[in-house]
Amino acid sequence: MTTHTTHPITPLDAAAIRADFPILNQPLAPDQLPLVFLDSAASSQKPAVVIDALDDYYRRYNANIHRGVYQLSELATSKYEEARHLVAAFVNAASPTECVFVRNTTEAINLVAQTWGRRNLDEGDLVLLTVMEHHSNLVPWHILAEENGFEIAYVPLTSDQRLDMEAFEQLLTREPKLVAVTHVSNGVGTVNDVATIAAKAHAAGALVLVDGAQSVPHLPVDVQALDLDFLAFSGHKMLGPMGSGVLYGKKRLLEAMPPFMGGGGMIRKVTLEGTTYADVPARFEAGTPAVGEAIGLGVAVEFLTRLGMDRVIAHEREVVAYALDRLAEIPGLTIYGPTDPAHRSGVVSFTLGDIHPHDVAAILDGENVAVRAGHHCNQPLVRELGLVATTRASFYVYNTPDDVDRLVAALHKANKVFGLE
Ligand SMILES: Cc1ncc(COP(=O)(O)O)c(C=O)c1O
Fold it and tell me: For 13, what's the count of Cα atoms within 13 Å in the CB-facing half-sphere?
């Protein structure tokens, strides 16, 4: 029998963490309020160590990789591969070769669709997605289904925007070849039980792709413990540079997949008659990669590892619980997503009476509170809510209860502007 000892988690010191983020510490004009940044679900801010790592790469050892025999190129290559090791350890991949550097989650999912999917999905096959998917886990499958003629079915949602697990089990009896699901909803913050989803999908004979864009930055994700076949995530949402992202894939699956894009860096041998391909992960990294950006992602991963992902999620849950409490006092405000905080992440989506979400966001911006308004690349989910848009506040390691207070004050102001308070 395994015994679990629970260690109390030392809370994150978000105020101290803020000091590491230059953008949050800019000098203010005399009547300017400090920035409250509540749009990390779109793209997080970057700590000084990540900005410095990019700066250091471009100033000190900028060179192409895997080609040069000179020292600069060798240094760039070893730092790039070191970043792959860091990222692999972060999600507990069995080997760094299971981690492919891509630009973002979107590219990672398209890679799987255009390689594994193009080869394995045909007429008569079924792919299972969910109604809460981001467009980047819908459109690549729509594009391929149009060409290859397979069917797509969608797991429906409960009334508080969780996956309807009974319906999921029913759909599994149709023996889908792939279940592709988001770990955490960027639209309403639902955390899906991907361990159970993967176990049930595997038992039904399906592979499992998880969109980790909103989970890997915010909570511990262990691809081996969860038994995921593919995991896609974006570096820019987890304190890393823009243009950095990762596709994790089980080695035997990656090895059986044809290339995505063709060109330099992904070949073993090219003759005029044809090409043989490099081993993974190089097979999927055609052309010159974003070298400094991958190195910066490695530094971001070290930063998050130092904080501890169990502390990151505990911190976000605390700030979100406070936000849910305080938002309840705003007249006319409706919050979407699970009512139980245990099923939520750091995303809080809401509407304020009949005020258009863009107007709410604009008034908040006037108070220097940055939130997102729109469909969040979740049109089917937002449509299911009977809406065209929501306002979304998303929280991360540098957000504090003071940020929530500023958000609440700005929302009272929005209500006053529209004569609702
Ligand atoms: C759940 C989810 N999936 C995929 C994406 C796409 O990420 P990217 O734009 O980095 O490719 C996002 C971005 O918001 C997301 O939240």
Answer: 5
Helix (H) or strand (E) holding 406, with range, is helix 401-417
Specify whether 377 is catalytic: yes
Residue carrying structure tokens 């395994």: 2
| Mean pLDDT by groups of 10 residues along the chain of 421 residues | 57 94 94 95 98 98 90 96 98 98 98 98 98 98 98 97 98 98 97 98 98 98 98 98 98 98 96 97 97 98 97 95 96 93 92 96 97 95 94 98 98 94 88
Q: Are 260 and 222 in contact (CB under 8 A)?
A: no
Backbone angles phi, psi at 170, to 5 degrees: -60, -45
Distance from C-alpha of 285 to C-alpha of 267, rounded to nearest angstrom: 10
Determine the Cα–Cα distance for residues 243 and 294; give it in Å rounded to an integer.
Answer: 8
Say if residues 112 and 230 touch (Cβ distance below 8 Å).
yes
Q: Which amino acid is at 225?
A: A
Q: Which residues face 209 on adjacent strands?
A: 180, 230
Q: Which residues contact 126 (CB under 8 A, 6 or more apart)?
A: 150, 151, 152, 153, 174, 175, 176, 177
Helices (H), 174-268: 194-203, 223-226, 251-255
The closest-lying atom of ligand 1 relative to the alpha carbon of residue 376 is: 14
Tell me if residue 236 falls in helix, strand or coil: helix
Query: Pairing between strand 36-37 and 369-370?
Result: parallel
Strand duo 372-374 + 390-394: pairing: antiparallel
Amino acid at residue number 168: F
CA pair distance 96, 260, nearest whole angstrom: 19
From the list 138, 291, 304, 377, the catalytic residue is 377
Ligand 1 pocket, residues with Cβ under 6 angstroms = 41-42, 104-106, 134, 136, 182, 186, 211, 213-214, 234
Q: Where are the alpha helices (DSSP H) in 209-308?
A: 223-226, 251-255, 291-307
Give the pairing of strands 99-102 and 245-249: antiparallel
Task: Give the closest residue (by CA) to ligand 1 atom 12.
Answer: 213
- By DSSP bridging, strand 151-155 and strand 126-130 are parallel
